[in-house]
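Task card 7
Instruction: Convert sequence to structure tokens.
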Amino acid sequence: MGRLNCKMMFDRSDIAILGAGFNSIYACYRMLKDGKKVTLFLDGKKFGASMNSLQWKDNIVDLGAHNLDLRTKIAKEFFSEILRDDLLVSKNAMFGSISANKITDGIEFPDFFKKQSFELNDIIKSIEGQKNKYVAPNSLEELLYNRYGDLLLPFFEEQVKRFTAGKLSDLSKNSIVPLNFLSRIFFESDAKMEKCKLQSKALDNAFSVSIDSREHKFLGLNAFSMEHGYPRGGLGTFCSRAEKYLSDNGALIIPSELKKLNVKKQSIEIVDNKGNIHKTDKVFSGMSTRQTFQLFSGISQTPYQFFGGTALQLFKVDLTDHKEGVSHDYLHDFSTNSDFFRASAIQIRAQKLKKGVISVEIPYDPIKEKRDWSLNRDKIWCRLKEIGFVPKDINYLDHTVFSHDKTYMFPTIDESIIDEEITINLKENKIYTSPSFLRGRSAFIQFFENLHINDL
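Output:
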């Protein structure tokens, strides 16, 4: 008697979505809305991946997101449909950047005011001096030079060192996406920025304004709403509700790890680690471009040369006797002597908790970083008080550091060229991916809506 073939062949789907993170969840949602038969492959990962929650003692701590952006109609409809009554909405979300211990509300870009080495007129001259020298940039250094001239390059070089071992000249222009705080700068006031931005396209591209700007045309999405949301109970709520929604609306969710993509004449076969074969017409991958290509080609891909990531420091605080509580949802700290770049207290604001967790994401190189982050906890807490993120009379009750696998790729010029070639190759075989360097939920929603995958 011959051996029993234990492989199983599942029904064919219109499209297969690869990956467990937000990109894959949204892609699955949109394809279901378009009436497609969808299979979602989690590749052995937890549903939601890095956009999730973890339990720390009696606290729920979020990973990968500080809020849900509701500023566009399509994003608001998506989060509202998934979360329903569990979506907490705030129209007064606070955002800020730091310079000389001053919070600039409404922007996430460096504020150069009171920095001794910079004067506004000098910055303007440096920017305007480049307006007739534009050349399509190949590197991040060229992109920043074309926008600002050479005056600010030392500052940008210093900032890049905080996130990755790569130099400005090594990194492709695509690295501006994970380093998007370098895209525009702020100086002193909206009035000055508005005046500059009205003068020329070069100055408009280089300077930013806050949400208080009178010139709403400069605000983009901020012009019509600052609505942000948060899931009741944390991002884990979003993940559980999204998984149920997708399943209830017909998505077949496969938890198994992926092993191979085989492109046949009339279909694409997806093989999982249990030997099961799943057929589909098209594939959209929320995984990195290279990981997707490795599944398709069977050729091992060289890892990216430069990585950055975050170590997550958590501070438990007691606000029982403090009426105002924590003052900001999150902020980016651009002080060159600080040890962190983002802090979040959204749980305390959105859910009005008396006790809560302040999380601080610290940039690090996940390959080379060896220092003991816990040794910096008091220094970081002092910095939180210094910049006014927490009240002066509040101290943390407990502290810990989680290793965080959330990493960012900063592709070199050559790596970006390779990725573009890979993307074209995959697309020719009806396998679609998002750019590996794409960051943020709003950015992905916009990308996917413009992909028009049903027309391809």
